[in-house]
């Protein structure tokens, strides 16, 4: 009798296990949630992963390559050989694929492509990704820079307080669209032609799939939702739209393999379903749940039970998953990414993260970290080797600056910051002419909740700075939800923040410009004192500013000369401790063994759910 009961129990368990396995549903347990689903404002991997699967671009990276492309919504990848790159690299022709439909059934047209590029360029939200297209196509870093150049006046002079152009400049603002933006992206029959002001070698990288800022939207739907109406005499009405007010903030509708269903903010959960009318073939996974689960123990339990197919792993606890026959650990995945401690050189005076806002023992002044010794004190308070050994479990590399290994200009012989409590103390005694040590300081270090590596960095800064200066330093470690954290950095509220950067395109300029140029994406987060510092000519740079040197390196065509310029830039960044490179990640992925077809590409912001299937 017992034998039969055991057999019966085994059969029931097997049936239940089989019932739990659903080859049509994929659950990814990750950290946090998107910041926004507006493709022209999103600039983080959590948002980018959703957009990657819902929208499509004209071209895509081919498999794991970061230099080879394949067609998507264009039927051919432009090359000089096929005649679709002309005028010495200044004109790109994209034949638009016919028979493709958006998720609402509207047909894809060349006009949709033109509208998508133009809407993004004209919107160009502060802190967003559109600077790349402005720089690639027009050679400037923003809409405002191009507009000021065209009108001959500053933006503050062109527009009144309500955001409308002043009467004397209105026609010029209209002509800006007609004479600058519109001619750069044109529909010619079934083709879209993009004209660059000068040749720019990274252009195809900047618009390839994963670059959601070049995703193709449905013009008709966008206008119905309340976005730019496509007219020359109205475009400015949408140029400063706030994040939550965008009709695309929590809505997405493209041509991609997955349709957007819901973004449940309370549960940090995004749901997608397969597009059964997809122009290639429908995805094998029919439902995707991207679920922000900040607690490691919950994510781990979900993976072990089979409730999640893959999870964001805490490397510190990776060994807890080893030996499980149902779990696959993929190690040593190449990345083009860095994690950096950055400073607010001039923080918003209203920030709640700087205490009293004074050098009185209960706070710090807003520009506290404009002092190089204050920055160097923090750099000496991070135990880099212990972080990589104990927290990352070896899945990280020391890097001298914010430039990752694998790109032109990386030099492993450049000096690294060292963990040294005596140096923490020495630098604090020099900061603010000794006043920081004499009066004491208090401030907060923030990180995005659920990111254990960044939490450990913040805790190290607190522990070792307080240890080096007992009673003189008080630091609060502040975990923030991802969107809250991002907003606080964009508003310039954080004196110290820990952020990573995944390459937008595989070129050193994407990292050097981002972190060290006064118009880089992190510039506004670091404040006006930072912008003044890097834009001021320096004797040690031959009379040039760091900005000028970065621009010279970006424009240089000789790789050897370019590499030397990047080394000069990095030496200056190290000497002045502009920011602190903590590590370059080495990728690790954990998934159920029933997941098949996954592949890595360092440019991708997350999962390509179309490529995978489940099989026991």
UniProtKB/TrEMBL annotation:
Cleaved signal peptide residues: 1-19
Gene Ontology cellular component list: ATP-binding cassette (ABC) transporter complex; periplasmic space
A GO molecular-function descriptor: peptide transmembrane transporter activity
The keyword Chloroplast appears for this protein: no
A GO biological-process term: peptide transport
Keywords annotated in UniProt: Signal
Domain Solute-binding protein family, residue spans: 68-522
SUPFAM superfamilies assigned to the protein according to its UniProt record, in alphabetical order: Periplasmic binding protein-like II (SSF53850)
InterPro entries assigned to the protein according to its UniProt record, in alphabetical order: Peptide/Ni-bd (IPR030678), SBP_5 (IPR039424), SBP_5_dom (IPR000914)
UniProt cross-references to Pfam families, sorted A to Z: SBP_bac_5 (PF00496)
Entry keyword annotation includes Signal: yes
Official protein name in the record: ABC transporter substrate-binding protein
Organism per entry: Fervidobacterium islandicum
